[in-house]
Amino acid sequence: MTDKHQTAGHLAAIGTIFIWGTTYVSTKVLLGSFTPIEILFSRFLIGYIALLLIYPHQLKTKNFKEELLFMCAGLCGVTLYFLFENIALTYTLASNVGIIISIAPLLTAVLAHFLLHGERLQPRFFIGFTIAITGIILIGFNGSFILKLNPLGDLLATLAAVIWAVYCVLMRKISVLNYNTIACTRRAFFYGLIFMVPTLFFFKFQLDFTRFHDIGNLLNILFLGLGASALCFVSWNWAVGVLGVVKTSFYIYAVPVITIVSAAIILHEELTPIAYGGALLTLGGLFISERKAPLITEQEEIVLEIQNTDDTNL
């Protein structure tokens, strides 16, 4: 992978996270007129249609095992993750959900370490994680000092983080199949919508398009469907294929920083000085974790692998 591809991968991840960091605010606004499942189904239906128009070619998988990867990715990354996240937003602050979701990189890195080849945990990951998580805890104090956190909302947000980690690992496995990224994302959206249909009968869902007469509702759902879903899932999945799941997922640590700023500007959620300090620590941890490792590290790793192979043969 060339340096140009690496740079493009980092830019794609940064752009994606910047948009995703504001989605909590858009969702919070829409919750005034829509239920969580209505927002979820609408945004991914819009996203699926957009991707179909952009890339109308059919994706043909080689076997059921490959198709099963797309099914699981749709179930985890679309249906379960966003259902838990949207419901969590009805119980707690938008900024709090963004903070809790930020444990996803750690969970993703652990899963990738054991389930994916070439995704080893490096020392700088733990250094960056320690600094970033300290910042995230400080940001969390912003919400807990102003309004008490709701245990149910926290639990749902935590489950969403676990599910997102599984989704990232699945998309890494899908990326090595060398299919078109837009087609892969659209297939995951398709299964996500299919798995979502049964939930429409258990949660409040109605086809009332008059609510989109409100320009605020219309703009926010289009932002979630076209920007945060269609565009961002494609760019994120591509970044995972280029950078790997661990490097890409670390950018999630920037989500609470973007979220608290956007929540303060749009929703007028109060910020404290300790939250600003936490934001700086979080970004510092992200910078350390994403620093390019010296070239000698890769060479040493190859030598170690050869030595380990020789030791095994002995």
UniProtKB/TrEMBL annotation:
Membrane topology category: Multi-pass membrane protein
UniProt domain EamA: residue ranges: 8-140, 152-288
Matching InterPro entries: AA-Vitamin_Transporters, EamA_dom, EmrE-like
Keyword Metal-binding set for record: no
Pfam family, one: EamA
Entry's Gene Ontology cellular component terms: plasma membrane
Keyword Transmembrane helix: yes
Superkingdom assignment: Bacteria
SUPFAM superfamilies linked to this entry: Multidrug resistance efflux transporter EmrE
Keywords associated with the record: Cell membrane, Membrane, Transmembrane, Transmembrane helix
Transmembrane segments: 7-27, 39-56, 68-84, 96-116, 125-149, 155-176, 188-207, 219-238, 250-267, 273-289
Cellular compartment(s): Cell membrane
Family to which this protein belongs: Belongs to the EamA transporter family.
Protein name per the record: DMT family transporter
Native organism: Clostridium aminobutyricum
